[in-house]
Amino acid sequence: MLISVQALRALAAWAVVCHHFMQIFFDFHPSGPIGRFFTEKGAVGVDIFFVISGLVIYLSTVDKDIPASRFMLNRIIRIVPAYWLYTLVMGLLVVVAHPLLPHQVVDWQSFILSLMFIPSENPGGYGLYPTLNVGWTLNYEMLFYVLFSMVFLFQQRLRPLIVAAALFAVTDVLGRSGLISRFYANDIVYEFLLGIGIGVIYRRGWITERLWLPLLAIGCALLTIKQLPPDLRIINWGLPSAVIVVACISLEPYMRGSRLLKTMGDCSYSVYLLHVLVLYGGWLTTQRFGVNPYVAFAVCVPVIALGAWLSYEWIEKGLYRRMKGWLDGRREAKEVAVP
């Protein structure tokens, strides 16, 4: 894995953390320019995540012929355990602290649909959000994985086109016609294609190692994001996010070998899943004891970081390796048993 991409993934995760800090503690009513930036633009971390996801999935499967079932199973055991755990914790938090969190509601139907990555109206009445609200992005991720699993039936050169056609069919045909949930009628899904495109040009050696030009590109992309609303998300935020990803890859020589950046990138998924729970805990503390919100946030940050590292080591990496080893062992046993 490129360390530059890992560093960017960590940065994107923490941008989302700051965005949700402004939501939970201030109800998106910032008092200064930094708070306003994270309120209005912090969600762009999701767009960067999606571009990186397309890049990583493409690079990890290029020139490989993997059965669709094995690809999906590998993605499930990588993504699902941590998500299910934190969804359960969120459900328990909502039940226990409901009087203090009146806008958060959970029922069995929405909880089960959340675990199954099926979009549904949150019982709190604020949209198509799962029990662990940040899980809405994983519904798109799972859609991408399902559609991407089909590409192994085709030649390598056709695979990006197959994914593009499948995403178009789901989003602009089925989603916008109402044949499936309107949740999928969102052009944000095309950001996965931007990542795949970056993977293609990276493999061809078209991304060169530089310093000042990538830094300038990052500055221009951030300025574009600052000036434009997320109305046409694939254009206003998706393309600048793709520029940032390409620029970071160009900066790889300046980050290569950094264990800290690699670790931060490794923990980014757990940061993303865990942070809302910790922030709610910090917010409840401010409500009960009158703690300054920024002091509470200063405490939440190391708690999130430490919790995410433990989550990565014990759940994401540890459990994934055990489950994958068990599945590979069963697969080898079946192959040996076949005469």
TrEMBL record:
Molecular function terms in GO for this entry? acyltransferase activity, transferring groups other than amino-acyl groups; hydrolase activity
Highest rank taxon of the organism: Bacteria
What Gene Ontology cellular-component terms does the record carry?
Answer: membrane
- Tell me which positions the record assigns to the signal sequence: none
User: Do you know which InterPro entries this protein is assigned to?
Assistant: Acyl_transf_3_dom, Acyltransferase_3
**TM region positions:** 42-62, 83-101, 134-154, 161-177, 234-255, 267-283, 295-315
A GO BP entry: polysaccharide biosynthetic process
Query: Which keywords annotate this record?
Result: Acyltransferase, Hydrolase, Membrane, Transferase, Transmembrane, Transmembrane helix
Offer one Pfam family short name for this entry. Answer: Acyl_transf_3
Q: Where is the Acyltransferase domain?
A: 4-310
Per the record's keyword annotation, is Methyltransferase included, yes or no? no
Name of the protein in its database record: Peptidoglycan/LPS O-acetylase OafA/YrhL, contains acyltransferase and SGNH-hydrolase domains
Q: Which organism is it from?
A: Pseudomonas abietaniphila
